[in-house]
Every structure is written in C-alpha cells, then in structure tokens.
Amino acid sequence: MFRDIDSLKAAGVPVAYNRSTKRYHIDGEHFLPPTNLTIDEALAVVLMADRLGRSPGEAILAPAVRAAEKIEAGLPAAMQKRLQAASEAIHIDPGPRNPLGDHHDTHHTLLTASVDRQAVRLRYDCRTEFQVIQTELEPYSVLHRERSWYVIGHSTRHDQVRTFNIGRVLDIEALDRSFERPKSFSLERHLGNAWRMIPEDGPDEHVHLRFAPFLGGNVAEVLWHPTQRCQFAEDGWLDYHVTVSGLREIVWWVLGYGDQVEVVKPARLRRMVGRRLRAAAERYPEA
Q1: Distance between alpha carbon 153 and the CA centroid of its chain, in Å?
Q2: Who wins on pLDDT, 154 or 19?
C-alpha cells in the first residue's frame, strides 16, 4: 500500500493522511468531473495534443499529452483503432519555432505570476538596448506567437507595457508584491495593428505592396494580417494593402520576397527596403 501511495505522489497526485480519521485520502478538487466528449471531439483533442505536445522543445505541453493519453485509454477498442488510422493519415507541422529549452521553469514562474497577479524581477538579454538589463515586471499576459513564447506586462525600468521574449530571460525571481492588471488593458488592444508583436507609437500606416505574378497567388491565399486587402491587376500583379502599427516588423517580411515585390507606399518603408537591398547587393559585387 505504501509503495502505491509513493507512486501516486510521484505522479503528482495529492495524497494526504488525515490523523483524525486515520485514513489516506486524495483532494477531491484534484480531479475534474467527467466530461462527455463526442468521438470527434476526443479524436481531435488526442491528435492535436499528440502532434503538438511531442514536438521537440515543447515539453511545456506535456500535461496536454498526459490528458490525451487518458482520453485515449478510455475510448472503445474500435475507436482506438480509428484513432490509430487517423494518426497515420493526419500530420500537423507547427513550423519553425524557438523551443523553450531550459526555460520551462521560467515560463512556469511567469505563467503562475500572471495568474496570481504577482510581480517578478527579471535579468534580461535585451536585443534592442544591446545589453543585459534588470527590471521588475507585472506580467499581464503570456503569449506564444511567431515561433516564440513572450510575456507582456508593465516594466518598471521603462515605465510602460513592454514585451519580453521568455527565451532571453537570464534570471527570474518572484517578488513579495502583488499587482492589479488595469481594467483598460487587453492584449488585442495593446497589440493593435502590429504586423507581428511590437506596436509602435504614432498613427497606423497604410502599406501598399505589389507582388509579381510568380508569387502573388501564394501571398493572397494566406491571411497575413487581419486588415489585409488583396486585388489582382490586369497585368497579373497583386496589389496588397494592409494597415499596420509601425514599419520595423513588416520591413523584414517584405525583404524576404526579394525582387518579387515592390513597395508602392509609404515612402518611408520604400526607403527602408531600398537601403537594405542596396546594402545586400554590395555584399555580392561579383554577382
């Protein structure tokens, strides 16, 4: 019996001894009540958790994998066979991403601090300030986007809401200080029309790009930004319109298409792309 109790504790099950009743018991709040999933719901949960949770560097999703395994074990034999067939037929590739590596504890600390409204102190490798900085952070939200995990919150060093890449956190310490997330804060409102993660001050800008026929179809079939509008001209070129909060992120996306795209406006983005392309060309004088 004691070996079984030790095994349960090792698995994370909260087994406790009640001295008054002289009995061992499990906290009733540890397990959720049964949920009546449909077969399609169960298959979807198991497949998604299995595919994403077992990806390299995604150990943060290990609880999802364990939950999926429990669901799978409770399926009828015929459904387990169907699940196996579906697993062989469906493949999900989340694409390139920055794995958390040895930052899982940092991610857990930030997630817990965000839920419990507890401030933390960070030592951070800041790529924009070109140095290691230290700040106290009130973590409003933890977000996975564009291949990496981020934490967004109020930074005392900058006295504003900032975004930090969790993979660049060198040290973290939970502080004995609570905070209240402003009622006016929402992640959607904070990000605004940022192309990816970092909104810039100032009014939003309308961007007009023209993509060559060779790539226009590929660009138009993907929703890159919620404000985008695509229209094909008679010459086969794609007119791509989007409204963004800042240009520093979208410039790198534009550069990725090389000579297959032209910036029509704004003029500032056209100059930014032109400078980068000329500098790149100078690296290949023999070409």
Answers
A1: 15
A2: 154
Question: Residue 200 corresponds to which tokens in the numbers above?
Answer: 């810039």
| Predicted local distance difference test score (pLDDT) of residue 262 | 97
CB proximity list for 102: less than 8 A, separation 6 or greater: none
- pLDDT tens across 30-80, in order? 565 666 777 677 777 777 776 666 665 565 667 777 777 877 777 778 878
Three-state SS string over the chain comes to: CHHHHHHHHHCCCCEEEECCCCEEEECHHHCCCCCCCCHHHHHHHHHHHHHHHCCCCCHHHHHHHHHHHHHHHCCCHHHHHHHHHHHHHCCCCCCCCCCCHHHHHHHHHHHHHHHHCEEEEEEEEECCCCEEEEEEEEEEEEEEECCEEEEEEEECCCCEEEEEEHHHEEEEEEEEEECCCCCCCCHHHHHCCCCCCCCCCCCCEEEEEEECHHHHHHHHCCCCCCCCEEEECCCCCEEEEEEECCCCCHHHHHHCCHHHEEEEECHHHHHHHHHHHHHHHHCCCCC
CA 109 – CA 118 distance, rounded (Å)? 10
pLDDT tens by residue, 89-131 = 777 776 777 777 778 889 889 999 999 999 999 999 998 889 9
Q: How far is CA 97 from CA 52, 170, 172, 191, in A?
A: 12, 19, 23, 20
pLDDT for 180 beyond 90? yes
Q: How far apart are the first and last CA of the chain?
A: 75
